[in-house]
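As a warm-up, study this chain.
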Amino acid sequence: MSISPTLAVDATGTICMWSRQAEDLLGYSRAEAMGQSIEIIIPQHLRARHWSGFGRYVQTGTSMLPEVVTSPAIHKTGKPLKLEISVKAVYGDGQKIVAVEAFMRAAGDEEAR
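Now compare it with the structure written out below.
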């Protein structure tokens, strides 16, 4: 079983963790991705919807998404991707969400199942 590509963003959507698997899947090196907005992998037409849902999730801990969602993404080269994504909140002191981890793989990647 493969390890799922993983990234994490802080409560503002800034990338704070980027795995080797994320590098392979999305094309950005760890050095390129760290400190950038998660928008680097979100298609332009989906960004407003992403930020609305992300803000609600960080504030309430409640997601409107299923446990695993299939979503478009963008590779560093501009190539469109379709990813299966599962997210998990990371809580700090006082049960406040301080980060969100995303576990990803290419949609239809049977090898990872």
